[in-house]
Structures are given as structure tokens and as C-alpha cells.
Amino acid sequence: MAKEKKFVEAITSRDEDFAQWYTDVVSKAALCDYSGVKGCMVYLPNGYAIWEKIQADLDKRFKETGVENVYLPVLIPESLLEKEKDHIEGFAPEVAWVTMGGNEPLQERMCIRPTSETLFCEHWSRTVQSYRDLPKVWNQWCSVLRWEKTTRPFLRSREFLWQEGHTIHATYEEAEERTILMQKVYRDFIQESLAIPLIAGKKTESEKFAGAEDTYTVEALMHDGKALQAATSHFFGSGFADAFGINYLDKNNELHSVYETSWGLSTRMIGGIIMVHGDDSGLVMPPRIAPIQTRVIPIAQHKEGVLEKAAELMGTLKAAGYSVNIDDSDKSPGWKFSEQEMLGIPTRIEIGPKDIENNQVVVVRRDTREKIVVSMDEITDRLGDILETIQKDMFDRAKKFLDEHIDTAVAMEEMISKFQAKGGFIKAMWCGCEECEEAIKAETGGASSRCIPAEQEHLSDTCIYCGKPAKHMVYWGKSY
RNA sequence: CGAAGUGUGGCUCAGUUUGGUAGAGCGCUACGUUCGGGACGUAGAGGCCGCAGGUUCGAAUCCUGUCACUUCGACCA
User: Fold this and answer.
1) Which nucleotides of strand B lie under 7 Å from a protein CB?
2) Which of A22, A119, A283, A449 has a beta carbon 3.0–4.6 Å from A29's, enabling a disulfide?
3) Which residue segment(s) compose the domain that A44 sits in?
4) Domain presence at residue A355
């Protein structure tokens, strides 16, 4: 990637200190603020607007597959959380407890939901009786709380916003199909709307969700070469159903367990957008998910007619369906350009006396800074084309970066040197045992198994670590 | 939870070693001049120095405790 000209000193260079760059972008783009409680953040208008766009897009996609939205309580009694063994073991270390109601100690303490499988199960165990009650394909938009030790804005906060879908089905096959379908929904959404290319597959035994039989994941690669688990879809089999007693009578009056799934995507995805697309000038929003698609910046706005013409342009664009705003503050133009760039608004439209004279405007792309002179008469059509081009180019650039950071290895020395050179994903064969998985992580300096892709390649016959017969080809990488 | 660091106007920090009337830059407000890549002048507003104790004639500064945040590790969407 070409060295970018840097206009603003307030943002640390991305290649100099990626972690600091990330924090600077979050703060300069006014996405969130820290609060008085560690790991609980204030979502500012710019940040929350992105979440609202994600919600709207994803919710529409969910509903096209038959999902219905619900809302369940924020509190889970301890006895309920404990019903499924693997689940409680997985979450116990990071739940927060409520022990008092007013001034009275509670008879039973309750945790603030870290996830809601147990609540959905409890509800269904009381209400599902017949095959006619199935399937249930539900989702809730809410926040959950996990007492993380180390927190970072969006990437790992204690309270975070997400959606969690929960479904139950009469058959194993139908539930498995739903699990895979939701992985596809996430994959399409993230690639099409967020312009973030992915690798997809199943998690290994050790990386699976607590209580799941299978976890399907989509993984993105950040600009620093680290992987981000973007969304997961879990297949539970009938484990939870049996633990909670969710049974139904089929047409032959025979009693059966239901099969269950759950799937989620969180505000962590906002961190992903920043780390995939952002640059040294700040945030770069993919046009389809950008809360504001273009910002009108008047040049020499004190001159006769400039502000009026700029306002008129904004009105025209609004009427054409664009999400647009104007910066008519008395800041200098240069300041406004930098501001628009830090916020990641995909385009800006400069309009000054020269433009008005020539019946034109100057559209500037955020991603490339390319200046495009457009006739005032064509702007409503051309802007849409430009935004679509940006969307496509952003995906293509990210895809090229991803492809350049996927490598293969058949021997440990090869894997270690390749991984340590530039991070990214390394494809390598694996025998399927947890000991090798851990050893690979330790010896490479942090490359954990990210997923087992559906499209398997045969790189060699043996596990890269122990040399025993290989079962899977796995993507390995350092994870956020 | 281990290790390190930091809390002083909205922000970034100086002042703490050696106790003596709270500082700078940026930002903010008003007015004027500017305006195609973070313009400038003039005049202003704004802080019981994270919190609680203690030592002292006197504490941002020394002592004790406590809370929070940041970064790095182990755990995790």
C-alpha cells in the first residue's frame, strides 16, 4: 500500500503504533468515550449511528429468513445459569452478580446476562409441547455483560451491544441448516455491506462456544495482520434441550428433544471496520453502512451566493435519497477537509465560486482522495456511481490485502518464519488433537486455530506439529 | 488476575525530587480580518490539582488508604 500523505498530526501513524492509531481514530472520529466504569463505554452519536445502520441492514436480512425479534430479561438466576454444565464452566469466570434488591440481600443471586441461551431455554421448556410449536426462530437486540480483565473500545468491552439469535427445531438437520444459513447471512452482510472479506469455517473443539456441538465462524484480517472473529453461529444439538427439558410430541405421539442454535454479531464489528479500512487520516466508512454518505463543504463561503448554492445542493441530494450534511461553520476549508476525513465520510463535495461559475462541483473520494469534477446537472446520478465504486474498491483492496496475507506451511520452521514475518493467516494440516493446537500457538508466538474451512485443501498427509496423519487443513492466525 | 504507568481548566501536559498565592499550548466565547489541505489579531471565560484521611504555621507537592483509566501478559464476542 502506498505511503499516504498525512495532513493531521493528531492521529498516530498506523504503521508506527497500530494500537495507538486505533485509539486515536476512535477518539478523533468521536465514536465513543470512556465512562467511569472500566470497560463500559459511552457510544457517541457517530458511533451509535454506525450501529444503527448495522442493525437495520442485518435485521432486514434476518427477517428475510423468517427471524422474529423478542426481548428477554437482563437478569439470570444462578440456578438457571448452572443447568448446562459446559455453559456455566465457560461463563462463570466472567459474569457479574446482583446480590441485593434495595437494602435486602436476595435469596438467590442473579447474574447479568453474559448471553441468553439459558433464558430462551427456560422459556421454551415451559411453552413448547407440540411439533406444531416448532420451529422457533427468534432474535434479540440487547447488551450483555462479561467481566473482561482487559478492555478496548469496541473490540473488548465489558458491556457490549449485540444481537443474539436463538432457534429450536424438530430435527437435527433443520437446526444444522439454520446454523449454516446464519453463517452465510453474516458472511454476505459483512462482505457486501461492510466491504470486509472473510474466511469462513468451523471452530476447533477448543475454540468452540461453551456448550456448543459446532461453532461456525467468519474471520476477518485486520491491517496489523491479526484476525478478528467477526460473527459466530453455534449448533447445540440437543444438549441444552436435554438439560432444560425442552421436549415435544410429534405426529405419532412420541416425545422428542428439540435441536437448538444460536448466533451473534456485536459492536466489535465496528472495531473491525476501523481496523480494516481506516488509514492515517482517520476512519474510512464503507458507503453502504456510512451514516452520512457525503458532506458538502462550501469554499469561500462568505462570497456572494456560495452558501445558498451549497444549501441548495444539499437539498437536491437529500431529495434524491442521499444521506448528506453540510459543514458551513466558519472554520477554514482545510480544517473541514481533515474533519470529514477523520469521520470517514465516504465523499465530500467542494463547492466554491469557481464551481458555481462553471456549473460544477468537485467530488472528493475519502478512500483515494481522488478529485472528480462533476457537472451540477449530473450530480445526483454520478454521486451514486461514485459511492458504489468506492464500496467495490474498498472490498477489492481489503481482499487483495487478505489474499497477500494467506500463506501455507507444511513444516513448523516454515510456519514460524512465515507467521512471524507478516502475521496473517497460515494454512496448515492438523491431526485434530488439542495438544498440537496448543503447541503450535506457543511455538509460533500466538497463532491459534481460527477455523477449519469447508473447502479443504490437501497440503500434506501429516500434522504440521506431530507428524501423525492429518485430519484437517486449518487456518491459523493471531487473534484479537 | 499478574506487571508497568498515569490521574492538575474541555484536551495534551509542565509544576511534585527540594512543601510557600495554580501554569503553558491547544480548544472554547466575542469582535474584526481570512477562506480550493487543520488561517490570524485583539479581548475574555474556565481548575478547592481523582477521592478520603494524616503530617505541617502552610500540601498539587510528603505519608497512609482508596477509586479510576491506559499499556503489556494469562482468559474471552
Assistant:
1) 1-2, 33-39, 68-77
2) A283
3) 18-277
4) yes
Same domain, A250 and A306: no
Locate the DSSP E strands across A170-241. Answer: 199-202, 214-221, 227-237
Q: Nearest CA to the C1' of B26 belongs to which residue?
A: A10
Amino acid at A136: K
Task: Among A389, A424, A452, give the residue marking a domain's end.
Answer: A389
Name the grid cell of A173: 438437520
Q: Please determine, for the modelled complex, whether the ipTM score is greater than 0.90.
A: no
Please report whether residue A284 resides in a domain: no
* Chain centroid, CA A59 distance in Å: 14
The pLDDT tens digits of the residues spanning A71-130 come to 999 999 999 998 888 888 888 888 888 887 777 788 898 999 999 999 999 999 999 999
Residue pair A65/A135 in contact (Cβ under 8 Å)? The answer is no
Per-residue model confidence as pLDDT tens digits over A35-68: 777 788 888 889 999 999 999 999 999 999 999 9
For chain A residues 141-170, those near strand B by a CB cutoff of 7 A are: 146, 148-153, 155-158, 160, 162
What was the pLDDT predicted at A167? 98
Of A residues 235-294, those with CB within 7 angstroms of nucleic strand B are 264, 266-268, 281
Residue where one domain finishes, among candidates A334, A364, A389: A389
What confidence category does residue A227 fall into, taking pLDDT thresholds of 50, 70 and 90? very high
Q: CA-CA-CA-CA torsion for A460, A463, A469, A472, nearest 10 degrees?
A: -80
pLDDT at residue A2, as a whole number: 30
Nucleotide with the nearest C1' to A267 CA: B77
